[in-house]
Amino acid sequence: MTETKTTHVAAGILIRPDGQFLLGSRPEGKPYAGWWEFPGGKLEAGETPLQALVRELHEEMGVTVSMAQPWLVQTFTYPHAHVRLNFFKVTDWQGEPHPHEGQAFAWQVPGALTVDPVLPANTPILRGLQLPAVLPFSNVAELGEAAWLRQLDLALAQGLRWLVLREPQLPAAAYAGLAAEVQARLQPYGARLLVHGQPQRAHDLGAAGVHLPARVLMETTERPEGWCGASVHNATELARAAELGLDYAVLGAIQPTQSHPGSATLGWDGFAALAGQGWPFPVYGIGGLKQADLAAAQAAGAQGVALLRAAWQGLS
User: Fold this and answer.
1) Residue from 209, 284, 275, 216 nearest 250 by CA
2) Which residues contact 84 (CB under 8 A, 6 or more apart)?
3) Same domain, 73 and 197
4) What pLDDT digit, counting tens, does each position of 247-279 carry?
5) Which residue range or ranges hold the Nudix hydrolase domain (predicted)?
6) Residue 19 domain-assigned?
């Protein structure tokens, strides 16, 4: 049996301060000419992915990369090649992109593409770009339902657009009632609700998707519909999330937490070692964190931070 050769590619997601990102069309003469993708190209002998990215973006569009963060790694098999794509978020560069190879460029809003078709290997990346930097988890258990709902209304008015409703202490009927109430409050804002642990309940509610605790993740054999993420603690659980094709993972605990005193923690070094193994989805840090930890999380390779208590503090 002939072993399939893997082509290693570096791709850059140029992101403006307003969140728009750049797609480029493939020029004539290349496979999939006219299809849209993130700019980049093949690694040359001896190059690291970052070195290839810097070179390719300068050659393709005349920009000089100043800041690029490794983000996701995606493998994909096309009829003509098996590729391993190393995606970088490029948040600072010099020069204005100009097509040097006959391609076209288009700035896009996450979740609202105006160009088509897009190469299929980019689909998880496009979904990942819709995810927030801060992913809040509910905290009814400590605040009480009425007080937490008031905080939720404040957070929605201040821009919250994603929520994981995690209340394992509630009986099924009480959780269902709360979820329906929360869904009604989120809908006017176009905010997305992720139900905790039960894909069928998410479907019945018309929620955006489901967030799986690690135990349920390891028992799941088929990816649930809609958006789907999971809580993970180690490489085995991360690998299971990758096998299922999930949209994100929440990895921790980073620091000691009130809810799990004395439990082992990863720290940012441990997080970086696990998150940096080339997963095809964004990874959040969780555990004893605040929004002020966002920069440290992203420096360690995270999408951002997942917050429980800290998500509902300081709202007014």
Assistant:
1) 284
2) 6, 7, 8, 9, 73, 74, 75
3) no
4) 999 999 999 987 777 778 999 999 999 999 999
5) 6-133
6) yes
